[in-house]
UniProtKB/TrEMBL annotation:
Residues in coiled coil: none
Keyword Metal-binding listed: yes
Domain CENP-V/GFA: 1-78
Record-linked InterPro entries: CENP-V-like, CENP-V/GFA, Mss4-like_sf
Signal peptide: none
Name of the protein described by the UniProt record: CENP-V/GFA domain-containing protein
Source lineage: Bacteria, Pseudomonadati, Pseudomonadota, Betaproteobacteria, Rhodocyclales
Keyword list, A-Z: Metal-binding, Zinc
SUPFAM superfamilies: Mss4-like
Family stated for the protein in its record: Belongs to the Gfa family.
PROSITE patterns, sorted: CENP_V_GFA
Metal-binding found in the keyword field: yes
Organism of provenance: Uliginosibacterium sediminicola
């Protein structure tokens, strides 16, 4: 997942072609393909109150996932 502000995202598929689901507290809108179920992105609000989009980088054309720096986080050890 890569987090950006909504103004930085350009959708190629119309929103009406997607389904939306909210889990648990219903604060994040998870968008899915109606046909295959792929989850390309989600929308929510950051802890600072800013609108944010979490993009599944596997849905971005011409990107090598190996070139993306990864920060591993061990929440279990907290």
């Amino acid at each position: 997942m890569w987090f950006i502000t909504p103004d930085k995202m350009h959708l190629l598929t119309p929103r009406e072609n997607m389904s939306t689901y909210t889990f648990n507290k219903h604060v994040i809108k998870h968008h899915f393909c109606k046909i295959c179920g792929m989850h390309p992105f989600g929308e929510g609000v950051s802890p600072q109150g800013n609108q944010m989009v979490a993009i599944n980088l596997r849905c971005v054309e011409d990107i090598s996932l190996d070139s993306i720096p990864v920060t591993h986080f061990d929440g279990k050890s907290l």
